[in-house]
Amino acid sequence: MRVILRTAVAQGPAQVMAGFTRELFLALAPPFPRLKLVRYDGSRTGDVVEIELDALVKKLPWTSRITDDGVRPDGTHYFVDEGQRLPPPLRYWRHRHLIEPGPRGGSVIVDNLEYRTAFRALDALLYPAMWAQFAWRRPIYRRWFR
Fold first, then answer.
1. pLDDT digit string (tens) for 107-122?
2. Mind listing the pLDDT tens digit for each residue in 63-79?
3. Bridge pairing between strands 77-85 and 48-54
4. pTM for this structure?
5. Distances from the Cα of 87 to the Cαs of 5, 52, 92, 124, 142, in angstroms?
6. What is the sign of the dihedral through the CA atoms of 133, 134, 137 and 139?
């Protein structure tokens, strides 16, 4: 299943890319499930991010590795995180972060997420929650990158 959200911000792509820090990661965390940041290496190829989700009755580990990053010829900065260890019911996770030059300056942050569980019906049932988790980021991005 794929979720794509686009958020226009005032800063340029290089500034926005440099702003993807541990502090921003924590600021983007939704209110539920609560998370504990165990490890944050950064947003470059080979970096690792480990979190622990607090699902009230159980702590669920999640590890992602940055598998690609760079700058495209059109000025788009990007990095890709892929799930290595995922909480149930997720079986696959790939999140492409694109920071495109805006049409009138600034940037457009694109959260392009692909996820899968064991069942397509469950993928569809999770879609509203996934969309909401990433829609939560939009006002934070706008404030962070004014």
1. 999 999 999 999 999 9
2. 999 999 999 999 999 99
3. unpaired
4. 0.93
5. 23, 9, 10, 17, 29
6. negative
